[in-house]
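I have been asked to look over a protein record a colleague put together. The record follows directly below this note.
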Amino acid sequence: MSSIACVFPGQGSQHPEMLKTDLVDQSFIDEKIEIVSQILQSDVSSILENESQLNLTSFTQPLLVLSSAIFSEAYKNLSLSDPAVIAGHSLGEYSALMFAESITFEDAIGMTHLRGKLMQHSEEGKMMAILGLDSKTIDEACSKINESHKSAYVASANYNSVKQTVIAGNIEGIEIARDFLPEIGAKRCIELNVSIASHTRLMTDAANEFNESLQKINFSAPRYPIIQNYSGEIETDISTIKQNLFNQLTKPVLWTKTMDKISQSASCLIEVGPKNILCGLSKGYDLSSILYIADQNFKGKVQNI
């Protein structure tokens, strides 16, 4: 079998059916739903039935961790080989650490619920995906906007691929960038359906408050090599892993660097979550197979790698 990299998605992968799979016993799913309902003090099934609630960051984050926990169980049930490397995109880093048995399921849910609440109540902002413009040009444009407009702020938040960078900032900064970036070559500027500026300095207060709780959580050494968003490097030291989770809230996600590392370590990428968003960002790398475990035909496809 090919060497495998497992990747875990962040926000944007949520949908009402995201806890359903035939690869895991329903009793396991029900047990996890009950645990999460208790931690959130809200009924998970009711949240899934209400799109506005599901899209609240404080609920989206722990429910995506729950979804990844279910699909992680599916991965283990299929007796697939241990991954050569793992990574999670933004929020997905907590799912990856849970998969690697570095943090418990309960702690992953509790941390991401708090993380979501703090982010949800941070300074209002926007995020926008920029297509068709290289990241260096985008960074230079953001600096120019910040320098020439005193009250505006915008910065790169996710270096997702060579063709896509997500920027974030306050409302004024994003609106200026939306008009300016097409003038210098951006093919599309797509505003995301969020009201916060993740992975920027606008998350500083949320990050500082989150860190107080983060430092109290017990971490173990990850069972599998994990590439972290902040550094784009494999990290093994527990104190460094914690520090990088803190840094990640105010610094950009280095996903292109992460994918470069993954393609050096594995030939097959498997997305462990309810959609295939990270699979889409994996095209163009030296990978023989790109699969997602929520695919109804995954069991058959994975036997051929």
Summary: The CA atoms of residues 82 and 166 lie 32 Å apart.
